[in-house]
Design a protein that fits this description.
By secondary structure, the chain is of the alpha+beta class. It has a single domain, classed as 2-Layer Sandwich (Alpha-Beta Plaits), CATH 3.30.70. The radius of gyration is 16 Å and the shape is flat.
């Protein structure tokens, strides 16, 4: 029996979107309260899916783009990543339905794609 395939999930956020403008418009106390709710929800999601999480990933920082023109700073919408195991692409995508990153925090959604070269070493 072969193991389930692995999928890369990348959370996306347009930091200029209405969701983010509303997030930044909150008071520090409101944002802290929302953070507490969101972090608890993320921990619960992680615990509920720990048997299929291959690599916990994490937040992504500023982006450098390297090409034949050299290196330059760019902005993209990638904010967080995680690697999961699932029997199908559809099943992997369904793991993220109602995920706290976009139900509590202001992320726009998550793109889920198969890893064609196998799981990351770790």
């Amino acid at each position: 029996m072969t193991p389930d395939p692995h999928y890369l999930a990348v959370f996306l956020s347009n930091k200029q979107s209405p969701k983010w403008r509303a997030w930044y418009a909150m008071s520090e106390d409101e944002r802290r309260a929302k953070d507490e709710i969101g972090l608890a929800a993320l921990a619960a999601w992680g615990e509920a899916h720990r048997d299929v999480i291959v690599h916990e990933g994490g937040p992504l920082g500023p982006t450098k783009h390297t090409s034949s023109d050299g290196v330059k700073d760019v902005v993209n919408e990638m904010t967080v990543f995680v690697v999961v195991r699932a029997p199908t692409h559809e099943a992997a995508a369904k793991l993220f339905e109602s995920h706290p990153h976009f139900t509590v925090f202001p992320c726009d959604g998550v793109d889920v794609m198969p890893l064609l070269s196998g799981p990351p070493e770790g």
